[in-house]
Amino acid sequence: MIIGYLGKNSQFRFFCRLARGLPPAGAVRKATRRQGGYHPPMFSYRHAFHAGNHADVLKHTVLIAVLRHMVQKDAALTVFDTHAGAGLYRLDGDYAQTSAEAAEGFLKLVAAKPAEPFAPLLQDYLDLVAGFNKQGSHKVYPGSPFIIHQVIRERDRDKLKLFEIHPTDTKTLTANIAQLEAGRQIAILREDGFEGIKKFLPPPSRRALVFCDPSYELKTDYGRTVVMVADALQRFVTGTYAVWYPIIPRPEAHDLPKKLKTLANRAGKSWLGVTLTIKSSKLLQDDAGEVIRPGLPASGMFIINPPHTLKVGLQKAMPQLVELLKQDANATFTVESGG
Ligand SMILES: C[S@@+](CC[C@H](N)C(=O)[O-])C[C@H]1O[C@@H](n2cnc3c(N)ncnc32)[C@H](O)[C@@H]1O
Q: Which residue has the higher pLDDT, 282 or 116?
């Protein structure tokens, strides 16, 4: 049970209702054409297509683990989600069914019968997602805003700040959050998260997590992530920064964790990098000679000022995650730390 004021079944109906608030794919395409003022290349990225994929499994497992540690200290905690998305997703909805990405991620994990019990970080992730669903059902998938809301303490909910720039996702996120008891306390900012965060740093609480999860659909997102973290470290060097990035054959993607590592080392701060690869990135051909794109093969999280418990937790979780999500012999993981 994750929300105290709702019973298990009504809680399930509650989250289904919220998640159903996502517009059908056709409506999104219409909205895209109508709103000419918005940055055009960004329009095609909708996280609803990707919800629950292997990248979400990695990033949300790490997000939960980082937050669990941070809420143990008595001091107030501020959380920034610079790229929040819509907040809740239906895995049986139009978007998710079109891409079927959750089948390679969360749904595969939840259906797995591991030889050993799930590692604690994975069990915690699975339990948290299960709390949004009726027992045995896996229709609702929480995005980072709802995951964060779930883990932080009630008294810190007025210090949760969600940035989302896409008009449709902002609307859906606002509607979803509004129905939470703490809805009015949570700040939803329809603005550029890279820029918008500056005015909040350092936060009065002096303890904060900055979770940065861009879509990287624009090549400039890689550089903007580095600039944002560099600027944020100057304003607030003791903050914890958690950045997700895709591992794809593109120089900017390979450079991003290296640049973040350099920033952490220069600031004299500890860091942790974790990657998950589930398959080869090579293009394949089907029997008719058509090229099959493999989809996203791998992704990583880079954390500056990570909790000291994170490395050990990930060293237990990652071999199991690879074993359960692997699609070919290229599946692997790395966990590195320094500083
Ligand atoms: C990968 S999704 C976020 C998923 C979410 N963090 C989660 O884990 O559930 C990236 C989101 O960032 C939004 N976005 C893109 N550029 C942005 C920007 N500059 N500032 C804020 N949001 C942005 C996109 O509309 C999209 O919803």
A: 116
Handedness of CA 293, 138, 57, 15 (dihedral sign): positive
CA distances from 88 to 16, 19, 129, 174 (A): 9, 5, 11, 11
Any ligand 1 atom below 6 A from CB of 299:
no
- For ligand 1, say whether the CB of 166 is within 6 Å of any of its atoms: yes
Q: In the chain, what percentage of residues exceed pLDDT 70?
A: 87
Which two tokens mark 201? Answer: 């740093």
- Give this prediction's pTM: 0.88
The closest residue, in CA terms, to atom 1 on ligand 1 is 215
3-state secondary structure 313-326: HHHHHHHHHHHHHC
Residue among 81, 156, 169, 213 flagged as catalytic = 213
Is the pLDDT higher at 294 or at 215? 215
Which pLDDT tens digit goes with each residue over 116-142?
Answer: 999 999 999 999 999 999 999 999 999
State which ligand 1 atom lies nearest to the alpha carbon of 244.
1
